[in-house]
Structure formats: C-alpha cells, structure tokens
Amino acid sequence: MRCTIVPPHMLERLAGGDDPALREMARRTLTFSSAARTQRRTLAVSTPSPAEDFVPKRTIYDAGQREDLPGREVRAEGQEATGDTATDQSYDWLGVTFDFFESAYRRDSIDGAGLPLLSTVHYGRDYANAFWDGQQMVYGDGDGTVFLGFTEPLDVTGHELTHGVTQYTANLDYYGQSGALNESVSDVFGSLIKQSHLGRTADQADWLIGQGLLGDSVNGVALRSMKEPGTAYDDPRLGKDPQPGHMDDYVETYRDNGGVHINSGIPNRAFYLAATAIGGHAWEKAGRIWYDTLTGGGLSTEVDFAGFAAETVKTATRLYGADAAETAAVKEAWSGVGVRA
C-alpha cells in the first residue's frame, strides 16, 4: 500500500547495468524494499482517538547498516543534536512535517491523533531508498555515487509521511490509477512542506521531488518534476525519466503496481497547474482543496483520476463557490492534463 521514494524502474535500470557495484547496490535495495512492502500489507489500521496536545513525539534509531528495525535509540524528543547528520536531519524534518500539517490543516500528526513519529537512519549497507513502513520512517544512506543520503531532502520525509496520512484517511489502493494518486498526493504534500519551510509562493517553487538526492555525476536534478513530468533526469545509468504529464501519454503496464510511480506525473502536473493558476502560497488554497478531498471521506479506495478530479472540484466549490476563480482553476488544471472532472 505504501511506497519507497525511489521508484523501482530506476533501481531496475541500475540492476541491469554494467557497473558491478551499482548492480549489487540496486539488487540489494530492491530486495529489501520488496520485503518492506510485504510487511506493510499485514499492518492493520485502527481508528485513532484524538489527543489533547499538538506536539511532536519523535524518536530516532540507528540501524548501523543492518536491516533490523528499529535499531538502537539515539535521540528522543527534546534531546540535543547528536552530531550525526542523518540522525539530526531526520529529527528536524519529522518536526517540520508535523508542524506543517498542524499549522496548515490543524492535523495532529500522521493519524490526526498525535501518533509518535519514529525513524530509523543508516538502514542497510548502501541502501538507496527511504520508506514509511506503516509505523515508522526508514532511511538508507545511498551508495554515494548515484544516490546520496536520503535524510537530506526535506520533501523525501514529507512525501513518505504523507503516505501515512493517506493510510489513515482515504487509504487509496496501491495499484493502477488509485495507486498513482496515492503517489501523487505524497508528492503534492512533500512539495508543499518544502515550499512552506522555505516560504516560497507557487511561482517561486521548484516543484521538484528529491532535489539534492542524485549524485554530482548523474545527469539529472531530482527524482520527479511536478511542473514538467518526464524531465527530472536523463542519465545513461538511470535511463530517461518516463513520467507522462497528460493522459495522451498514459502508460499501460503491469510493472510497479500498474505504473504508480510513472503515471503519478499526470495528477502531479494537474496540481501544479491549479496551484500556479490560483497563485500565492500553494498550501493555503490548492493544498487545502487536495487535503480536504483526501481526508473528507468522499473517495473510494479504488478511485481513478476522473473520480478524484471530480471530488476536488466539489471540494473547491464547497470552499470557494461554484463561480470562484479557485474552482475554475481546478477544473482547467484537470482539463489541461486530459482528465475530465
């Protein structure tokens, strides 16, 4: 149901490449990531009870390059920085993400009821991914060549923790178009968390996911571009970014749960178009429309792009009115990517 931040098609490309070290790293990462996804499917989600206070409860663990979770506790809520970059980055970004959902949408942690935020860093040897396993965050250190440390980009943490928000709300099926929407929602709020942290408006934002994660030798800027899907990277080792930005280029595939990391480019661009048309800080209006749609109870777990688009129009109409510029922007955004709302 949940995902890793690096899509499998990038790792599969490396696993079939010429570099023995990168082949081994990619194959090991794919194996560990698959095991994590299997474990997530066995987790039950219960209805949370509201908490009285809105404060984060963070605990950071160190796996010591092993694959055992959670690892050794190295920093708890309120403790001073440890000096270990990954530990302290994870602690900070968990707090930034918590503060974003609290301040923007009055949400108390991932489950809406004060769920403690747990994180394990230094997971696996050269593990080139990060994921939310249904209970906690897990970060690898990357291989240092193609992928750098996964605690570095704030939007990686924001993306993965948003999978937890989806888990506790719409619980979108992780296959086909509902799975691509699951991925897209995480990209949307991962980007909004970064934009809010940096104080950027929609027209100032880079709309990149995972900027700073790729090594200097990689011909690319990020894992994905919400503004221009399909342009994030074009590298001999990784191949070319396969994301489409319009339904005309929708990819029919059985791989990657029906292309969830690929076709998410279409709703990603729709959000970008809506946010930039509305203007200002994207988390205030466009983000509110997407958040209320995700958490409002009107989505089927198997919703497709058209169904999700229709719900965002309903939400915009409820919030701003049928004839409002915000509602028109949402309609035009979905039309701009070939989805009828």
Task: Report on this structure.
The protein has helices at residues 8-15, 20-40, 85-105, 154-168, 176-198, 256-263, 265-278, 286-295, 305-320, 325-336, and strands at 58-62, 72-76, 117-121, 130-132, 137-139, 208-209, 224-225, 234-235, 239-240. It is α/β, with parallel strands linked by helices and 341 residues long. The chain has a five-stranded mixed sheet with strand order 2-1-3-5-4, covered by helices on one side. Strands 6-7 form a two-stranded antiparallel sheet. The two termini are 25 Å apart. Mean pLDDT is 93; it is low at 37-42.
SSE layout and pairing:
Elements: H1 8-15, H2 20-40, E1 58-62, E2 72-76, H3 85-105, E3 117-121, E4 130-132, E5 137-139, H4 154-168, H5 176-198, E6 208-209, E7 224-225, E8 234-235, E9 239-240, H6 256-263, H7 265-278, H8 286-295, H9 305-320, H10 325-336
Parallel strand pairs: 1-3, 3-5
Antiparallel strand pairs: 1-2, 4-5, 6-7, 8-9
